[in-house]
Design goal:
The complex is a heterotrimer of chains A (613), B (217) and C (247).
Chain A: E1 4-13, H1 17-28, E2 33-37, E3 53-54, H2 68-78, H3 85-104, E4 115-121, E5 124-130, E6 151-152, H4 158-172, E7 176-179, E8 181-188, E9 193-200, E10 206-216, H5 237-243, E11 250-251, E12 256-263, H6 273-276, E13 280-282, H7 290-293, H8 303-318, E14 328-331, H9 336-342, H10 345-355, E15 364-373, E16 376-378, E17 391-393, E18 398-399, H11 411-433, H12 440-459, H13 467-481, E19 485-486, H14 488-505, H15 519-543, E20 552-553, E21 559-560, H16 561-564, E22 566-571, E23 581-586, E24 605-606, H17 609-612
Parallel strand pairs in A: 1-2, 1-10, 2-7, 10-17, 16-18, 19-20, 21-24
Antiparallel strand pairs in A: 3-6, 4-5, 8-9, 9-10, 11-16, 11-22, 12-15, 13-14, 14-15, 22-23
Chain B: H1 16-43, H2 49-61, H3 64-84, H4 91-103, H5 107-134, H6 141-149, H7 152-178, H8 184-214
Helix pairs in contact in B: 1-3, 1-7, 3-5, 5-7, 6-8, 7-8
Chain C: E1 4-11, E2 22-29, H1 36-47, E3 66-69, E4 72-75, E5 87-91, E6 97-100, E7 103-105, H2 106-116, H3 138-148, H4 155-159, H5 161-165, H6 171-183, H7 191-198, H8 212-216, H9 223-246
Parallel strand pairs in C: 1-5
Antiparallel strand pairs in C: 1-2, 3-4, 3-5, 6-7
The chains are: A alpha/beta (613), B mainly alpha (217), C alpha+beta (247).
Bound molecules: flavin-adenine dinucleotide, protoporphyrin IX containing FE (2 copies), iron/sulfur cluster, FE3-S4 cluster (F3S) and FE2/S2 (inorganic) cluster (FES).
């Protein structure tokens, strides 16, 4: 059967903020661009970000004196010196432009209102006085780990509004969008990437997209974990197709961020503001416990620290049992009705709609859960993927790498459009020089291979494993072994278990017919790819014998700049193997800010040799 | 950047839909005003035969009935033509709105269905009624009572009355919400008052019919 | 106290010649805080892996999961079964093209409508990366955001009798979107431009004021108020043009 084939200059896999921002750049330069997405672009995960994005505009009173330099320093410290400082520099310098540009395109940023206003911090009220000359300029709010108020926002819908603004731009430019299309593999000749084999999720048919350049902007891989704030479509599709080439490395797979307060059972994020304003965490006996572990900061210690103690407490058997597993309580009752229905309105609504819980009188069930993927397709500072010409990546799917081992709140939304803008421009330069010979024979080979694989899955030729059981087993292992705290024993067990599950994943067979837009088939096609990603994460974590940012090893609690000021590059070179090959490169080529103390999250540091004396 | 010059037109945009919508609303409002005056006229019989006769005579002496009557007829026809743009006539449209209304448990949607159905009934019965009354001028309480006591007209009015009042009441509500005279906060209250108004109107109408039926001629 | 839930779910796979539209019944034990998101996934994983439905964010923010729940369009992810009777009937949203079972193609519809109404800022001002941003009152930014909160879930369109009867009616979502641009000083379109887009029977004058849109909108967008404002505004633009032509 001949497959529908589409030709273009650029095909973007992923139409979230990053994919669309790059597409806008290419289309504006006159290049034919096609956006692919699992869902209509406006439903991409980017729409879920509420808080805001960081850019050093320095308009609001609490942001006075801010500059890209300060933003840069915050970002590097946040990354625990794991980031590429050249990228962090480009990022901090471009962020203000990207924010203003979004404003120019219609983003209704909140603005400075001159005069005195009351604010809260840690439940304490204080006054700020906004300057009249700043009236009407883009304002900002506070976020964790920043020296200044720098997070630009639109109420509690920054990601949503930004995504709609960009998608409007995409509509204006008439960019072709194919939604409900899932990339299955990349078409390449070992040197250059020439396109994508994709499956239409409306009909189930395979399609070919041939292009001079391919961009991967598929977001994170949160669904390797069962408990994540990510959307259900963040399954690492982009990382899978890149890794499967055997040529492109997965950068820092082990760098995964956890958030303390996801609600149980749906893992919807409830804001840190709850604790900031004086909320407390309770255990099964409805007693506070954080002050035992962290006498000074208690509930207000940093994200990773609180998450770790919460898991520890649950492991001690102090969790509240529930049909969805043990959890803890978040108590904000004492803040009172007025405070809860005004300043914590989102939390109030979430509790009522999703839990049927009234937080004014009842406790909120919470548990730490996966939140963000720092790792991804490794690219250079201009967005070129390592290992394959014509392949680019941007956004959460990429390891650009400005986040290192911990990304700051507000920096990922910013990354999507800042990196998107920068990488888009580099991509345009690439396209100007790219030759136009697209090889249909390669496409035919690639699609035939995928087709054969799909046929076997439908027929159950390799086995009859249930895809959902395999997926659930993987998620379970990831939660237990590669979670918030990590240690050699658990990680080794996780890797072993994942290898067994990986073998099972190759024997998946369908229970249903597989006809049309069959959801079971969609999951079956990617499940072994997801396991390869999971193995990269687990194996990367096992091998990295230090603690850095979100990667916290109980058996190696120190940050080891002597041996581990590096970035993991995981390759999957042997299609029949069941472990990635790990290589390492220096975390950064240039040091604008030499490794030092972050100023929070106390941690022992093993210094680099040249600095140790 | 593709900048779009929106100032140049091949042809000016058609305003027709806007005018027709204005007219639909205005004829509707005009008919409401008429129906309320009509109510005063007819219900005045409750205050006494002479009161009604006096009012009726006044309208005829000033030729308002002779001219106004046909004008109301024309307005109703115009209103019908305008509103007909919205009424589902093809069976597929009828099918879809009917299926839709049944699926959706939603009062305002049902109210519209009522409006469309009553409209057809009013069109026919209202025309017959107007023809009858206007070809038999002058209007007097006695003649009306005789008609109603005949039985046929009693049944006729017992059907027409609630139809008209429902249509008018819902129409009044709809003008309020469609044109933004009534805002989100006021809608619930407005709907309740409109329902009460409709009930009162039907009640007065019933009293009037009973009054005619029991009027000694 | 836990109930046995009975789900009646619309089934049809247009890609499968053997499939005919029908309803399937599933039973499921109710658990605390059970949402339709969790329930449907359980049904798919444990009872029928071919069951098609759409979720993405599962936090009522992406608009993927609109479906007709016991006769009302709503977001399945934020619907608790405890708010429903023990028998739950699920149907796909009408108006949109069916992908299969509970899944409909909202993407194509919204993209087409957005380009029809030209849902973007029209300006010939170039962006200057070096310049400070243009100022705007915070209150205005907030009112724009109030309308911008729409998540294109399609519930308003699916619940609208007019949209069900007439294919070319753009629906409350689009009218709200236009109201948002009319409010925005950065959009340099003139009254006549807006009128051309929404001053028609496919636009605001097609709306019959059924207000189901207002009643089902999961984001509580002030649709009634925006539709009212828009009708008046477009009405007066038309009236003004009479006098202009005369004058
Ligand atoms: C609850 C929550 C709150 C957050 N809040 C903030 C915040 O306040 N500030 C902040 O800075 N960051 C925040 N983040 C993080 C931020 O939202 C994301 O990192 C960012 O939006 C990612 O954008 P993206 O464009 O890279 O990817 P996404 O928006 O995830 O887009 C991925 C795209 O790829 C497509 N896709 C995926 N796989 C495939 C495939 N195989 N084939 C084809 N298409 C595919 C998808 O359909 C989608 O269009 C938050 C995250 C969460 C979970
Ligand atoms: C005395 C008689 C009538 C009165 C007082 C009356 C009044 C009204 C009013 C006030 C409205 C609301 C207008 C609007 O929404 O813009 C309305 C709407 C309507 N009328 Fe009438 N009407 C009368 C007769 C009729 C007749 C005879 C018909 C048709 C056969 C009719 C059909 C309709 C329809 C279909 C609507 C709904 C239009 C829409 O929703 O857009 N009406 N009427
Ligand atoms: C100019 C036109 C009209 C005139 C002069 C008129 C006159 C009258 C008169 C005299 C009566 C008393 C009963 C009778 O004599 O039979 C009456 C009753 C009635 N008329 Fe009309 N009418 C007019 C138009 C209408 C229209 C357009 C409608 C509705 C569509 C209507 C609805 C009724 C009803 C429902 C009654 C019953 C009385 C009641 O209980 O209120 N009339 N009308
Ligand atoms: S207006 Fe409301 S119901 Fe309509 S699409 Fe937007 S959010 Fe959904
Ligand atoms: S339901 Fe439809 S008719 Fe108008 S008021 Fe809403 S768009
Ligand atoms: S899944 Fe996103 S709105 Fe329900």
């Amino acid at each position: 059967m001949p497959h529908e084939t589409f030709y273009s200059d650029l095909v973007c896999i992923g139409a979230g903020l990053a994919g669309e921002r790059v597409a806008v750049e290419a289309a504006a330069a006159g290049f034919k661009t096609i956006l692919l997405s699992l869902v209509p672009p406006r439903r991409s995960h980017s729409c879920a970000a509420e808080g805001g994005m960081q850019a050093a505009l320095g308009n609001c009173a609490m942001g006075e004196g801010d500059s890209p330099d300060v933003h840069f320093a915050d970002t590097v410290k946040g990354s625990d010196w794991g980031c590429d400082q050249e990228c962090a520099r480009i990022f901090a310098d471009t962020a203000p432009i990207a924010v203003r540009e979004a404003g120019h395109w219609g983003m209704p940023w909140n603005r400075v209102e001159a005069g005195k206003a009351l604010c809260f911090k840690g439940g304490v009220c204080f006054e700020v006085d906004e300057k009249p000359e700043k009236q009407g300029l883009i304002t900002a709010r506070a976020f964790g780990g920043t020296a200044k108020w720098r997070t630009c926002y639109t109420s509690d819908g920054t990601g949503h509004t930004l995504l709609y603004t960009l998608d409007n731009k995409v509509t204006e430019l008439g960019i072709t969008v194919h939604d409900r299309v899932e990339a299955v593999s990349l078409i390449h000749d070992g040197e250059t990437c020439q396109g994508v084999v994709a499956r239409c999720l409306k009909t189930g048919a395979l399609r070919v997209y041939l292009a001079k350049a391919v961009l991967i902007a598929t977001g994170g891989y949160g669904k390797l974990y069962s408990e994540t704030t990510n959307t259900v479509i963040n399954e690492g599709g982009g990382q899978i197709v890149a890794l499967d080439t055997g040529l492109v490395p997965f950068g820092n797979p082990e760098a995964v961020q956890f958030h303390p307060t996801g609600v149980v059972p749906t893992n919807i994020l409830v804001t840190e503001g709850c604790r900031g304003d004086g909320g407390t965490l309770l255990d099964v006996n409805q007693e506070r416990f954080m002050h035992i572990y962290e006498p000074e900061k208690a509930e207000l210690a940093s994200r990773d620290v609180v998450s770790r103690w919460m898991m520890h407490h649950i492991r001690e058997g102090k969790g509240v049992p529930s049909p969805y597993g043990p959890h803890l309580w978040l108590d904000i009752r004492h803040l009172g009705e007025k405070h809860i229905t005004t300043r914590l309105r989102e939390v109030y609504d979430t509790c009522r709609h999703f839990l049927g819980v009234d937080p004014i009188t009842q406790l909120i069930p919470v548990r730490p859960c996966h939140h963000y993927s720092m790792g991804g397709v490794r690219i250079n500072k201009d967005g070129y993927a390592y290992g394959l010409k014509g392949l680019f990546s941007a956004g959460e799917s990429a390891c650009w790498d400005m986040h290192g081992f911990n990304r700051l709140g507000g920096n990922s939304l910013a990354e999507t459009i800042v990196a998107g803008r920068h990488i888009g421009r580099q991509l345009v330069e690439y396209l100007k020089g790219a030759e136009a010979t697209l090889r249909t024979d390669l496409a035919r080979q690639a699609v035939a291979k995928d087709e054969a694989r799909i046929k076997r899955i439908i027929a159950g030729s390799d086995g009859k494993e249930s895809v959902y059981e395999v997926r659930n087993a993987m998620q379970q292992v990831m939660m237990e072994g590669v979670g918030i705290f990590r240690n050699g024993t658990d990680l080794q067990k996780a890797v072993d278990d994942l290898q067994v599950i990986y073998a099972r994943s190759k024997k998946v067979g369908l229970k249903s017919s597989g006809i049309g837009a069959n959801p079971e088939l969609a999951m079956a096609i990617k499940i072994s790819g997801m396991l390869r990603l999971a193995l990269c994460v687990a194996y990367g974590a096992l091998t990295r014998t230090e603690s850095r940012g979100a990667h916290a090893r109980e058996d190696y609690p120190a940050r080891n700049d002597r041996d581990w000021l590096t970035r993991t590059l995981a390759y999957w070179r042997d299609p029949n193997g069941d472990l990635p090959q790990l290589e390492y490169e220096p975390a950064t080529k240039v040091f604008h800010l030499p490794p030092g103390d972050r100023g929070y999250g106390k941690c022992e540091i093993i210094c680099r040799e040249e600095m140790s004396e | 950047m593709a900048s779009i010059d929106t100032a140049i037109y091949v042809k000016p945009p058609s305003r027709a839909s806007a005018y027709l919508d204005w007219l639909q609303m205005l004829t509707g409002a005009g008919l409401i005003a008429f129906m309320w005056s009509h109510m005063v006229l007819v219900a005045s019989v409750n205050l006494g035969v002479n009161v009604m006769n006096f009012i009726a005579h006044f309208f005829e002496a000033t030729y308002m009935a002779q001219v106004g009557g046909p004008m109301i007829g024309a307005t109703m026809l115009l209103h019908f033509v305008l509103a007909a743009r919205k009424i589902p006539f093809t069976s597929s449209e009828q099918g879809s709105i009917w299926r839709h209304a049944k699926m959706l448990h939603h009062q305002d949607t049902w109210m519209w269905v009522v409006q469309a159905v009553t409209a057809m009934i009013i069109l026919i019965m209202g025309s017959i009624h107007m023809w009858t009354v206007l070809t038999d001028l002058p209007i007097t309480a006695q003649k009306s009572a005789l008609r109603i006591q005949g039985g046929f007209w009693m049944v006729f009015y017992l059907i027409l009355l609630p139809m008209v009042e429902l249509h008018v009441g819902i129409g009044f509500y709809r003008i309020g919400v469609k044109w933004g005279f009534v805002k989100r906060d006021g809608r619930k209250k407005f709907k309740r008052s409109e329902n009460i108004l409709t009930a009162i109107m039907i009640f007065i109408g019933l009293v009037t019919i009973i009054r005619f039926a029991t009027l000694a001629v | 106290m836990s109930r046995q839930l009975k789900f009646n779910i619309f089934r049809y796979n247009p890609q499968d010649p053997a499939s005919v539209p029908h309803a399937d019944t599933f039973l499921l034990e109710e658990t605390p805080s059970l949402t339709l998101f969790i329930a449907l996934n359980k049904l798919r994983e444990e009872q029928d892996p071919s069951l098609m439905f759409d979720f993405a964010c599962r936090m009522a923010i992406c608009g993927s999961c609109g479906m007709v729940i016991n006769g009302r369009p709503g977001l399945a992810c934020r619907t608790l079964t405890s708010d429903l009777p023990a028998e739950i009937t699920l149907m796909p949203l009408p108006v949109f093209k069916l992908v299969g079972d509970l899944s409909v193609d909202t993407g194509t519809w919204f993209r087409a409508t957005n380009s029809k109404i030209e849902s973007w800022i029209h300006t010939d001002q170039e962006f200057d990366p070096q310049a400070t941003e243009e100022r705007m009152e915070n209150a205005l930014a907030e009112s724009i955001f109030e309308l911008e909160r729409c998540i294109e879930c399609g519930c308003c369109v699916a619940s609208c009798g007019t949209a069900n009867m007439r294919e070319d009616f753009v629906g409350a979502f689009a009218l709200n979107r236009m109201a948002r641009f009319i409010m925005d000083p950065r959009d340099k379109r003139k009254d006549a431009d807006y009128f051309e887009v929404v001053g028609t029977d496919q636009g605001i004058f097609g709306c019959m004021g059924l207000l189901a849109c207002e009643d089902v909108c999961p984001r509580s967008i002030p649709l009634q108020d925006q539709l009212g404002l828009l009708r008046r505004k477009m009405g007066f633009i038309a009236l003004k043009s009479i006098f202009k032509r005369k004058g």
